[in-house]
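Hey, can you fold this?
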Amino acid sequence: MLRLIKYLKPYTLMIVVTIAMLFAQANFDLALPDYLSKIVNVGIQQGGVESAVPQALRQSKADQLVLFMSEQEKTDVLANYTLVQPGTTQAEAYLDEYPALTTEAVYILNDVDEETHDRLNPVMGRAFLAVSTIEKLMKDPSAATELGTITGFDLSTIPAGADLFGLLEKLPAAQLQQMAVAMDEKFTSMGESMVTQAAVEAVRAEYDALGMNTGTLQTNYIVRMGGWMLLISLGSVVCSVVVSYFSGRTSSGSARDIRRDVFKKVESFSSAEFNQFSTASLITRTTNDITQIQMLVMMMMRMVFFAPIMGVGGVIRALSKSASMWYLIAIAVVLLIGMIMLVFSLALPKFKIMQKLIDKLNLVARESLSGMMVIRAFNMQKFEEDRFDKANSDLTALSLYINRVMTLMSPMMMMIMNGLTLAIMWVGAHQVAQASMQVGDMMAFMQYAMQIIFSFMMLSFMFIILPRASVSADRIADVLETKPVIRDPQDPKHFGEPFRASVEFRNVSFRYPDAESDVLHDISFTSQPGQTTAFIGSTGSGKSTIVNLVPRFFDVTDGQILIDGIDIRDVSQNELRDRIGFVPQKGVLFSGTIESNLRYGDENADADRLKAAAETAQATEFIFSNPEGLAAEIAQGGTNVSGGQKQRLSIARALVKQPPIYIFDDSFSALDFKTDAALRKALKQDAASSTILIVTQRVSTIKNAEQIIVLEEGKIVGKGSHAELMENCPTYKEIAMSQLSLEELL
């Protein structure tokens, strides 16, 4: 995958924005359990009272609370409250909110910052707990033992109904301070959150005593927290939409760029590279493999960056709720990682095989479709069906194996997740019962644990996609990193003006890649402008190989090919092929119209030139017999025209180009003798100044050629005109006599 990482560079900004959005989304999602915890702990259990620092406090209650504070704490607390006396102008502003202010002085909390509030909270919480404990003893003397345990004093002898606060005020300061320290130690062991929760009941009682509407306080808190949860959820949705948009743009754009470069690379391949990569494999790599990369990029941007943020953030927040249950998450994570690694080790080798099986399936399907007429002619439908079934069954069997391995992940993950939920509920319930944990914190811990597990589940999905995409990336990179054996020179030469279309083979030998011997041996000849040079010989003698060397479909092994006195390897391929009109042995047409196919020769050609080329190629009869004329549709591969029509359109396409050099690689084989003769006659007139190279099996086609080259086993065994070869070349004479009568040859 790293071999294709350069294709993500143009989308760096989108990736950075996506990561930022994922970070924001993760923080939004991680904040939701905390708000749920607050609703349960504060909104429901604590009645909307958020802390042990009350907004208002009767003076009489304040006098009781300060008994259990040090002098420094007492000074700090009272400094942050303002005492409002009843009947004053200041009191009128608070009467509606605190009705008790009509008869009793009230301390009103100043506008304090969060740091000050957090500092006062444990102090006030312990003081409220101490006061509420004393009040409990005053109402229920049986609680003396419990109170004695907390304070360290034996209070069992105190009569019921006694004013304990009055007695405590009379105690020496040192003894009172000793009692406060003992109570602080006891309350501190409960934990700050539990102290706050316990003290909140006393704060609510104080609010009731002040005449406040505590029901409205609870409702307002729940509505406020619920509103924040809705806003956070909306923020998460917005981030998710942005992430989806940018990940889609990045994955689609990078896939487009890779597909474009693969296609451009394949266009530069010579026949040697096409022998290395089959057509079916190249099609698979350009479609299926790039789709795998596109899916991987999208999932990486949406999950790979998101999952670690969620996982790490979930662990931190979960431990902040209850550090004592960390081992439950650790066990679940270890089990998940083990399962993912097992699946990964089983699936990775199979994905490599799968892509090769897809290649095989495409190959069989392509061959069967393109050779359907041959298959029917030989009644081989059953054989091809069996061949396709074999390729299809192999791919299906492997896919089923991979799916069976992958399907284990979902139930195993659900079992781990549900098991973790049960374990958290079991352990958490015991901690709630022991007053060491709040119910809301247990619920939040459970949600954070689920988020951690889900983050690993996201990564597991990546482990499903990554192996196959990794194989696909390597296959694509193999194509992109292939260096064509035929390359342009770094400092190319240019043909001179005026251009002289002479073609010279100088001691040329050629060997196909990985072949053991040469197929051409010491070929030398010169073809001049205005002349036709024909190549004839038995099958496999090297005729097509010679003409394929001229446009550099292959490069010579030894010797030189010169055009206009310049070695063709010293000019760019584009400039070389711009001077050549090539008609291949097998006519190739593209889907579109007749006109679009002819304009392949020159897209700027006018209608007169198209018509003239069609006339020379003897194609006007079948073109214009159709009412649509040049606008007639050509099916994919030219399947809706005959072989002869396909050849004539291919010849017309080359004629539209009007190049100085024409190459006809056995391009008249599908034409009848009459059409062949008419075409050659018209071609002689229209291309009188061009160099023409013709490969043919027909002696009648080349009888009038200025130069005929006879090949046998890759060597020139005869060179000259028809008459000269009939006299001094037995090979040519044998070929000619096998095709034409003596009268026709004279």
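Oh, and this one too while you're at it.
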Amino acid sequence: MSDPISTEDHGPVRIIWSDNPPVNALGAAVRQGLVREIEAAEADDAVEAVVIACKGRTFFAGADISEFGKPPVMPWLPTVVDRIEACEKPVVAAIHGTALGGGCEVALGCHYRVALPSAKLGFPEVNLGLLPGAGGTQRGPRVAGVELALQMAVTGKPVSAQVAADAGLVNRLVEGDLIEHAVAYANEVKDTRPLPRSSQRDDRLQDVDPSIFEEFKKKNAKLFRGDVAPAANLELVRIATEKPYEEGVIAERNKFMELMVGDQAKARQYFFFAERKASKIEGVSDDVQPREIKRVGVIGAGTMGGGISMNFLTAGIPVTIVEMNQEALDRGTGIMRKNYDSTARKGRMTPEQVEQAMGLLKPSLNFDDLAECDLIIEAVYENMDVKKDIFGRLDGIARKGAILASNTSYLDINEIAAATSRPQDVLGLHFFSPANIMKLLEVVRGDKTADDVLVTAMAIAKKIRKVAVIAGVCYGFIGNRMLIPRQLEAEKLLMEGATPQQVDKVHVEFGMPMGPFQMADLAGVDIGWHRDPSRIESIRDALCAIDRWGQKKGAGFYDYDENRRPSPSEKVQGIIDDFAKQKGIEKREISDQEIIERTLYTMVNEGAKILEEGKAQRASDIDVVWVYGYGWPVYRGGPMYWADSVGADKIVEGLKRQQERLGDKFSFSQLLLDKAEKGEKFTR
């Protein structure tokens, strides 16, 4: 392998170049080269200043994660950053693309920072269960101030170069040729002494109000629920305001090592690779090329159809959206416009970008207009007869080679495909609601789906910034199939003595964003309801029959006030008690552990069935679905990784303990039993 570090002299300014594609990760060879060339520049009398710059599309975008868990290769990054800062000649960081994690720490080690306006800087280590380990938590607040340092380190979200410049983290924003400007800046400061060394500054730490930390915690309370890394990052920034730099970096290093060997960091690092693995399609050659998608058609302008359309419009892909009547079409496109305007008000889009996106939309009442589309997505309600009728019509209209997709969340893609003469062009594209926000996309592979159709689906998912996972055809695919036993057992637990708030509390304390009944109320208790008031077969049916459809009606499993704040409902408890009485179920005390075993262990069992049936390519794909589609806490890695952490034997033991209550419909996954017997894991 060639040396990723090279140099180039511009008069008295030496540029130290890194060329380590794709993201200039700070691997061992890069670290060694940086130290070598800083020392060489310092020893060369002809060199008066140094610029550190990167070739390719980005500045250093972080550490080399492939080195995690392996024996360290010297020098460590903290040593590199310290050596840069100790240089007796001015060092300027020339930042383009992203300066993330270790890259941002390298920039802080430099005496000055010059950046293009399009650049971003940040500390995303918290997303790997870690903290900046090369002085970032100590230099960051000293240079950028406590408030911005907290935002960067605790949330993990990068900030724009403009925000960084406003805070003093970037010394100069430049337009045009970055290197030309960086060299010019280096010439400006080459005689400046003393050099501004980040670790020696304390001007930004004067008069810091200690309450800033508690206020930050309150404002970002969700970040701290069960997750240890955000709290560790906050604590280290606090230490920067209380202790000398030398003590702060020792505390940072100790906490970094503690986190690195912790369960949460291991889970997050596992998930980092799981997400990347999900894009690989088993059984499909890398040579298969995607079909060209110039225009997308969407059938249905409701909540899902509108949200799906927005993904493509935002990515600059024209959309033809078709509805049955003008009122529904106007309502749907109006909501899309409203959503875009809301995004613009929050500063996430400019008004010009909103107009550009909406300008790519072609609303229509004419089904034949879909003939011009390369990908057509059906997004009507869950009824097989309706969907088969639509696909039959599409078969006679869509051009040859067009991909036909259903957004169904449960139904058989093979049966839908059979309604056409081209099942090879049919697949499922299951978007999650709200479709314009949720990152997950289940790509459902029919028995006859062509390889290039799958490749196209995965490529277009990336273009619209979705995380796509391949699923096989089965009822509910991966995510919703695993949701079924959870919801079934949760409702049974109510009749046996648990309350909605107890069940939900167990799930929230586990790390889920909400529990089963909170989720039902948010999504709509009436989803999938048969709408026949004479058929009251479940607690959900009873709620729907009296218009308790969830938050949208102000009542569901909970009562809601005008601000949608929930409270326990006596009426719902009465319905639960009536059902229990009818079924002859005697109420008893339900433990939190029983709730976990019956609602989460059953999910693991279903996930194991999905694997043994080949409906998911790999266990890690199931984890990606549940983290991105349902809010499973990423610091637990996903249900299958979590099962490995608990132990398959413990999962089986718990399910056997509950087997009688789970009923005749429950059956063990043979794969789960085998893993338990052999002491094997699903994910490792």
